[in-house]
Amino acid sequence: MLQIGKLRENPEWAIEGLRKRNIPNPDQLIERVLNLDNKRRELQTESDETLAVANAKAREIGALMKSGDKETAERVKQETAGLKVRTKELETLLKTVETDLFNELAKIPNIPNERVVPGKSADDNEVVVEWGEKPHLPEGALPHWEIIKKLDIVDFELGNKITGAGFPVYKNKGARLQRAMISFFLDEAVAAGYSEIQPPLLVNEDSGFGTGQLPDKEGQMYLATQDQLYLIPTAEVPITNLYRDVILQENQLPIRHVGYTPCFRREAGSWGAHVRGLNRLHQFDKVEIVRIEKPEDSYKALDEMIAHVAQLLQKLKLPYRILRLCGGDLGFAPTITYDFEVWSSAQERWLECSSVSNFETFQSNRMKLRYKAEGKTQLLHTLNGSALALPRILAAMLENNQNSDGSITIPEVLVPYTGFDRIG
For the packed helices 390-400 and 172-191, what is the interaxial angle rounded to 10 degrees? Predict the structure, then answer.
């Protein structure tokens, strides 16, 4: 959530940023928020002044009664009663305006960082890095959805029978390969200084609001209606919310966590080759890195997270590129996002496998996540990134590592985890 003080000080900053996101009539949106804020402050001032007068008159009544001037004391009592009625009215008005202001602020997305260019869609994203050579496949090479069926390592029909479309069953060496990637990604993060967390897979509404999934993405999240708990779309949500309503000390920073979880998203639903097989799922596994940083350190941390994800892909020998998202493709909560895409040789296209984002104070303001330094309390910056999401990594790995005999070569870094170097 944007800080009202920043909007008050520099409304043009917010209006220009929202234009980058193609938000309609951003000047009217910010004006509406500032008008509510002005009304809130006016009501607060009147409420404070009215209460101060009422308290002064209460003291006056005591002095008048003590002096024996009961007539004047009764008149002042009536005045005080009127002031108390007005105080109650002001409290009710103030609560209504505060609620309206909160609801309006909650709808406004984060303001894009100055590095973010305007744009309408993913077509306007900037490619900032491209690494690796695209492999040349042997004759008869297959897309991954045919490979997994041929090798009997992932079964979509069984998943569809048990649950529905988008819930695959990993089998045999496919299941072991999933476990190997999870362990490898976790070990790499721990070696880089991240402490491991195994969080709950369901969160409450406050947690969803804190990281910006609610109310923005409620239609994409699975809801357990009886208990009003949401299945997590990413480990970012429970891990970052560990620090909701917390004031940290400066010597506790920075905080670096990594966690593996299944992720649940209702967003799958379109048709075509771009969503076939592992390209888009309702349930998938992901390792997530989360950082909490002092504001002056967060962009250095962002660069470190990008470098961490890049070295994972390099160790897997998967060609990749990094894109900086334009304003029109930026998510609700980040101020800046870098997407990683791996090259899928059989599909001849790039597959997104990671997003690394800095939210600055947007999430921490919603969560009331602060730190105390030199007697002052300030909001912290939050960051997260996929390191990595498994389905499209597996898809690219299977397609890019096909051999002429139809077998698949396992990347060397995973062999100690799998116990085999080939499938098929």
Answer: 110
